[in-house]
Amino acid sequence: MTDTQMGAAPDAPRRYPCPGCGADLVFDPKGGQLKCPYCGRTEEIPQSADAVNELSYEAYLVPRPDQMHALTANALEVQCSGCGSIVTFEPPDVAGECPFCGAKIVAQPRSADPLVAPSGVLPFQHTQRQATESIKQWLGSRWFAPNALKAQARQEAIQGVYLPFWTYDSHTTSHYTGERGEHYWETETYTETNSEGKSETKTRQVQKTRWWPASGVVARWFDDVTVPATASVSRPRLDSLEPWGLDQVRPYDPRFLSGYKAQRYQVSLPEGFEIAKGMMAGAIRSDVNSDIGGDEQRIHNIATSYSGITFKHLLMPVWLTAYRYHDKVYQVMVNARTGEVQGDRPYSFWKIFFTVLLGIAILLLIYAAAQGQSH
Ligand SMILES: [Zn+2]
Ligand SMILES: [Zn+2]
Fold first, then answer.
1. Which residues pair with 286 in a beta bridge?
2. What is the distance in A from the centroid of ligand 1 to the CA of 121?
3. Please, which pLDDT band fits residue 143 given cuts at 50, 70 and 90?
4. pTM score, whole prediction
5. What ligand has the least distance to the C-alpha of 35?
6. How far apart are alpha carbons 342 and 356 in whole angstroms?
């Protein structure tokens, strides 16, 4: 598949031409700057004095057209027919294979739809080569992984993708009703049959709980509750890629995306906030429990109101490879900040089968040898 077939509009103005040779500068994780892959010229991305903007949740619930922007000036977007992910890329990069499911992307790319622009980005820090090494090492310790997976540890098969996340800040006020349990001891009488077969009356101390109605208000401020806005990678897997190091987030600059793909958010801003509420609930419950006090607590109801909600749309970097094995999609990914590897590892049935068979054969040989000696 050629670039023109992929619709990388040939007349589109190049955004970051190399002043030396005119090729496209791409973001270099090593130097944290733009670099020409041909002549090696580099260009700094100026440190922005701006803070990473928190935006008002209310104002973006139904975003106005002027609040929506394309990810980069020349961004193209294409939807994978295999898994439905929408991948954004910047020419001269091409759609190629879907980083999430490994399918060849055949749809025509088009200009990227505007979206709620990212406030911040965590730039790539690990290079493709480092990621390939990390994946090789990870696979090396997994002998039962099928060869199809090992073949994925080629550098070309590993793609750099920015995954979308929402982070929410919110003030919460929670009215609760419940009960406070206080322990007390009671003397209980019971009968026991002694060794002579006679029943004896004895007493013992038993712990009981007396319950009192309880109600009140607790308040808590949440900062940067982080919710993945991708549906193409499983939540537990993303959770285990943490920590991302949110304190390192840079104000969004499209130059960080040069040479990388980015995924369009699949979880909307309000959907993401519903997930965030679930994540806040645990902390609120433990606040309520300590507010109720006593030895035990029962919670009947918590009504939480959220105020002063702000959010950020952040892009986090991963190196990702996906492949199909027995009609299932498997992903292996590397946190491009920390180098941590997470992935699916199917076990090869045949590798296990032959290992077991070999084990049995060796046992039979040993047995036969022992039999031979005893005669
Ligand atoms: Zn150059
Ligand atoms: Zn796909």
1. none
2. 25
3. low
4. 0.80
5. 1
6. 28
